[in-house]
Write a structure and sequence with these properties.
338 residues; alpha/beta; Rossmann fold; 2 domains; 12 helices; 33% helix; globular
Amino acid sequence: MEIVAFGVQADEQPLLERAFEGRHQIRSLDVFLNRDTAPIARGYEIVSTSVNADLSADVLQTLSAGGTKMIAQRSTGFNNIDLEAAADLLMTIGRVSSYSPYAVAEFAWGLTLAVNRRIVRAANRTRNFDFRLDGLMGRDLRGRTVGVMGTGKIGEAFTRIAHGIGMNLLGWDIVENPRCIELGLKYVGKEQLFAEADLITLHVPLVEATRHLIDADALAAMKDDAILVNSSRGGLIDTAALVETLKAGRLTGVGLDVYEEEAGLFFFDRSLDVINDDTLARLMTFGNVLVTSHQAYFTEEAVGQIIEATVTNVQDYLAGRTNENMLVTQGQLPAAAR
């Protein structure tokens, strides 16, 4: 069987093709799945997609009409998929329930250190042989307080690093992680976390209850010199409110690997284009803001695990089996995915 895979990155392609070698043919495309590209999948029973694919109801209908019965998404998040529509179309939807949490946690720490110590600004200066230290002063993080919002596998990995640095640990989640408690993390309400944390890092999924978790009120409750890091999903932050906060001179630094309107921008070369997103354009003007292109997951280990899980999803679908990665199985919507 030949499978078509959308949104395949150049570094990902050989790993993906090697994983399916001897099992199925894989057609790797660098274009992302959306309304315009969905007709490409006509005749393919199995389609693999990336995190920024548009799998809304009308796209799913186009795929289904073209003969697609199974979608294997190469990501953990699935807020881009209309699961109810997929169920109505009797489709099977698989995702990757987990991969290396260290990839994302370590990158989140990379963003933290970069904005705290002004590393990007310093590197840009020294390329021009400007070796002044003006404006580059950071702060010791040891002894300061970190607020970890979301203490699952990634949040736990971030907490372990914070513990090693010697930070005071606060956490917020709907379910407490006993391993984080063993590290000394104290669970508190959002309001207390916002008020006391010097560093706030986001590791929760994007669902309706967490959309704009960081809104104008949350930002107003934070310390003026706090650092905010998001390596989870862009929709967790109200970006317009964040811009207003930064315009007021608040927050020491912001590190973002995700953006709520990143679809159509991230993973593309837009360097020669006119960017019509005024919010993102304004955000990029702040010297204390570092934006990267949704790459926190992008390590050899994590991508390898994502691809391995994708192969398993495909094999299980073809064998009529289900697994923990299945969000919809031939039109059946598990309770956990509702």
